[in-house]
Design brief:
Elements (H helix, E strand, L loop, with lengths): L1 H36 L16 H6 L5 H36 L3 H12 L6 H12 L5 H8 L13 H27 L3 H9 L4 H12 L1 H16 L3 H6 L11 H10 L4 H32 L1
C-alpha cells in the first residue's frame, strides 16, 4: 500500500509541469476570454460592466453589425477550409509516398527540402510569395509575359486570389503533414506488403487495402489539425491580400482582431472568438465520428 502511494505521488509530480503549463496557457486564457465576452470590455474604459449574453445575442441578431461582421468572415473562412483541407491531406500524403519510395541515401535530403518552408516565419513567407505573385514585377507574370501570355492578377481578382492563397498555404505548411504521413507509412509492417505481393496484389490494391487502413488514425489526426489550422488562417490573407479584393478574402480572424483593436470592442470580439472555437470543436468531433468513431462503434 505504501509503495502504491509513492508511485502515485511520483506519477503526479512528473505530470505536474505539464498540468501547470496547460492551466496557465490553455485553461486560464479560455476562462478569461469567456469572462471578457460577458462584459462590456472596451480598451479605453476603466470600467467593465457585466452584460451577460448580450454580445452573443447581438452576433446572432439578423441585421446587426456584429452579425454581419461575424458571418461574413465565417463564410470566407469556411470557403478556405473547404478548398485547402482536402489538398493539405492529399498532397501531403502524395509527397510522403513519393519521398518514401526514394532510395534511402537521398530520402532524408528530400524530407528536409519539403519541410524547410514550414520552419520559416509568416513574414518571410509573405515576402517570398509577394515577389512571386506581384502583378507588375512578379516572377510568375514575368515568365508568362516571356511566353506571350497576359499577366494574371494573382492577388487582386477572383478566382486567382484564392488560388494564390491556397498555393501559398500548401507550400508553407505541407511539410508538417508530409512528415506525419512518412512516420505513419514507416510503421506499416513490411510483412503485409510481402503477403499481398505473393497473392498477386497490384500497387493500387496494396495502397487501398493495406496502406490506407493502417494509417487511418494518423489521417484522422492530420485532417483535424489541418481543419483547425485552416480555420485559424490569418497571416496569408492579411499579409498578401489585406482581405481583398473587397472583402473576398477577409477571414473571420481578421474581423475579430479589427473589432477588438480598431473598434476597441474586446467583449464582442471575445464572444466571436468563443463561438469560433465552439464551431471548430463541433467540426472536429463530427470528423472523428465520421472517419474513425463509427468503426469503433461497430
Amino acid at each position: 500500500m505504501k509503495t502504491t502511494w509513492k508511485s502515485r505521488l511520483s506519477s503526479s509530480l512528473f505530470a505536474l509541469p505539464y498540468t501547470l503549463c496547460f492551466a496557465a496557457f490553455m485553461l486560464f486564457p479560455i476562462g478569461y476570454g469567456i469572462y471578457i465576452s460577458l462584459h462590456d470590455f472596451e480598451l479605453l474604459s476603466q470600467e467593465h460592466p457585466f452584460v451577460g449574453l448580450s454580445h452573443y445575442i447581438a452576433i446572432f441578431t439578423s441585421g446587426s453589425y456584429e452579425n454581419s461582421l461575424f458571418f461574413r468572415g465565417l463564410w470566407v473562412t469556411i470557403q478556405f477550409v473547404l478548398f485547402s483541407v482536402p489538398l493539405l491531406i492529399l498532397v501531403g500524403l502524395g509527397i510522403a509516398l513519393l519521398v518514401n519510395a526514394l532510395p534511402r541515401k537521398i530520402r532524408g535530403l528530400f524530407r528536409t527540402f519539403y519541410f524547410m518552408p514550414y520552419a520559416i516565419s509568416a513574414s518571410v513567407m509573405a515576402v517570398i510569395w509577394l515577389m512571386m505573385f506581384d502583378t507588375n514585377a512578379g516572377l510568375l507574370n514575368s515568365m508568362l509575359q516571356k511566353l506571350g501570355i497576359q499577366s494574371i492578377p494573382w492577388l487582386t481578382d477572383t478566382p486567382w486570389v484564392w488560388i494564390s492563397l491556397i498555393a501559398t498555404t500548401l507550400w508553407w505548411t505541407i511539410g508538417f503533414n508530409m512528415i506525419i504521413f512518412i512516420n505513419a507509412l514507416n510503421e506499416v509492417p513490411e510483412d503485409y506488403y510481402e503477403a499481398a505481393s505473393i497473392d498477386g496484389a497490384n500497387v493500387w490494391s496494396k495502397f487501398k487495402h493495406i496502406t490506407l487502413p493502417s494509417i487511418r488514425p494518423v489521417m484522422l489526426f492530420v485532417m483535424i489539425t489541418s481543419t483547425i489550422a485552416s480555420f485559424n488562417i490569418y497571416a496569408q490573407p492579411f499579409l498578401l491580400t489585406r482581405g481583398g479584393p473587397g472583402d473576398t478574402t477577409r477571414v473571420l480572424l481578421m474581423n475579430v482582431l479589427d473589432h477588438a483593436f480598431i473598434r476597441k470592442d474586446v467583449g464582442s470580439a471575445s464572444a466571436m472568438a468563443i463561438i469560433m472555437a465552439f464551431i471548430i470543436m463541433i467540426i472536429s468531433i463530427v470528423q472523428y465520428r465520421l472517419t474513425y468513431g463509427r468503426k469503433e462503434g461497430n
